[in-house]
Design brief:
6-stranded mixed beta sheet; Four Helix Bundle (Hemerythrin (Met), subunit A); about 450 residues; Gyrase A, domain 2; alpha/beta; Rossmann fold; single chain; 3 domains
Length: about 450
């Protein structure tokens, strides 16, 4: 893909009153624009200069800080300007309007990052990491985005691609000499390397779920019988009265969802209607919603009233409760008398805590337990956090299918021509992830999800 030849401009900070606003400019006309607007000697690269900004008619708009970045040592790889004005929206818009009057074009969504990709400043996973970094909701999501921005996924893909290229080179050597079969020794080498690449592909693909959790939040469903204190727990974790709390059982008839930060993780906390073994008609509708949310949950907080006998949950719920996704919370322990202990659990393997949603007792231990369970979702990739997105996962699934077919053909002593076709299919899928395959529609769709000015 050829580099664009026009110069683009956009507001890089949110619209609204603030201390400063930043307008970004990128393209071949940046140096000439700087001379025309600010006069004086040429701007030295990467050094901020205080100057008046006068529009094309000579009217003073503001005193600004302007920084010139000489390509390729810039974000986009092109000559670039960053103009920091006072954060009056009218001033920022006036500067942008003047730049357009001087021949700049308004940047499209994600166009600065797209130019960085086209200029070889970053691969496509790094470009996507820019948006992940902007929208990171938690410490873990921020760490994953930072590592991907620094090329972690690209390095893993590069290693797999190199291994696959070596296999393809060996196979194609025998295509050039069709009278010769791939000997047993070479088949063993090819099979071993295919198995290594396939294993690495599967490991990367296994990080997709963790990536979804980091980007969207961990679906954490609060379940339990009516009046166990589920809504009180939600309010305590959210830090405000989000759900209606009443001594009357069955107050919650629908689910309530709130995002919270708990430790280094973002949780999509979902309070649900109580699971009553003998519900009324309206209560039954609420329970149906609870069962729907439970079927999609990543984590469960099972709230029990410590002063009451142990309730029975529907089989569709109990079948999903495991030590790796459930914390049992004996609530209302502040109401227990010295000789009155709560009932034991039917499954002693489920981790339990004693809490009081009313007083806040046990909430620190709950946070620690949730963090431990949430961290266990991460798939090991050494010290690096890899968290692929849906686009990566789709390409990796296609690569894995090609690799599995290729491995089977090697094991069955199949034709090398057909084997080479499968290997090229896997390489093409890896290339889609890194952006080494020219797919204009895919790039258009991807960068339109970015904000203007990035």
């Amino acid at each position: 893909m050829s580099r664009p030849t026009d110069t683009i401009a956009a507001l890089a900070t949110p619209v609204g009153t603030s201390a400063i606003a930043v307008v970004r400019v990128s393209g071949p006309d940046c140096m000439e624009l700087a001379k025309a607007i600010f006069g004086g000697p040429p701007l030295p690269p990467r050094i901020a200069r205080h100057s008046d900004y006068r529009d094309v008619n000579g009217c003073l708009l503001d005193d600004v800080l302007v920084t010139f970045f000489h390509g390729p040592r810039s974000y986009t790889g092109e000559d670039s300007l960053e103009i920091a004005s006072h954060g009056n929206p009218f001033i920022a818009q006036s500067i942008l309007t003047d730049l357009l009057a001087r021949g700049c074009r308004a940047a499209e969504a994600g166009e600065f990052t797209r130019r960085a990709f086209l200029g070889g400043k970053m691969d496509l996973p790094q470009a996507e990491a820019v948006m992940d970094l902007i929208h990171a909701r938690s410490e873990r999501a921020l760490a994953a985005a930072n590592q991907q921005l620094r090329g972690s996924l690209g390095r893993h893909l590069g290693d797999l691609t190199e291994g696959l290229l070596l296999v393809l080179a060996r196979v194609e050597a025998y295509i050039d000499f069709p009278d010769e079969d791939l000997p047993a020794e070479d088949r063993r080498i090819v099979l071993d390397e295919l198995s290594r690449v396939l294993h690495g592909t599967s490991r990367l693909l296994a990080t997709h779920h963790y990536g979804e959790l980091l980007r969207d939040g961990i679906k954490t469903v609060i379940i339990g019988e009516p009046n166990a204190g589920k809504s009180s727990l939600l309010n305590r974790l959210v830090g405000r009265d989000r759900a209606l709390v009443s001594a009357e059982p069955g107050t919650t008839r629908d689910f309530i969802e709130e995002r919270i930060i708990l430790g280094p993780h973002c949780l999509r906390l979902i309070d649900t209607a109580g699971l009553n073994p003998t519900p009324a008609a309206l209560e039954r509708l609420g329970m149906d919603k609870t069962l729907e949310r439970a079927a999609e949950a990543d984590l469960f907080l099972w709230v029990l009233d410590a002063t009451r006998p142990l309730p029975t949950l529907p089989n569709s719920v109990t079948g999903r409760l495991t030590p790796s996704n459930t914390i049992v919370l004996f609530n209302k322990v502040d109401l227990l008398t010295p000789g009155n202990a709560h009932a034991p659990l039917p499954s002693p393997t489920l981790p339990t805590l004693q809490i009081s949603a009313l007083t806040g007792d046990g909430l620190t231990e709950l946070t620690d337990s949730v963090v431990r369970l949430a961290d266990a979702f991460r798939q090991g990739q050494g010290d690096e956090i890899i968290a692929i997105n849906s686009r990566h996962a789709d390409a990796l699934r296609r690569a894995r299918e090609c690799l599995e077919t290729a491995r089977q053909k090697v094991a069955e002593n199949g034709a090398v021509e057909l084997l080479a076709s499968d290997l090229r299919g896997a390489l093409d899928a890896f290339g889609e992830i890194a952006g080494k395959i020219d797919n204009e529609r895919m790039l258009d769709h991807l960068f339109k999800t970015f904000c203007i000015g990035k």
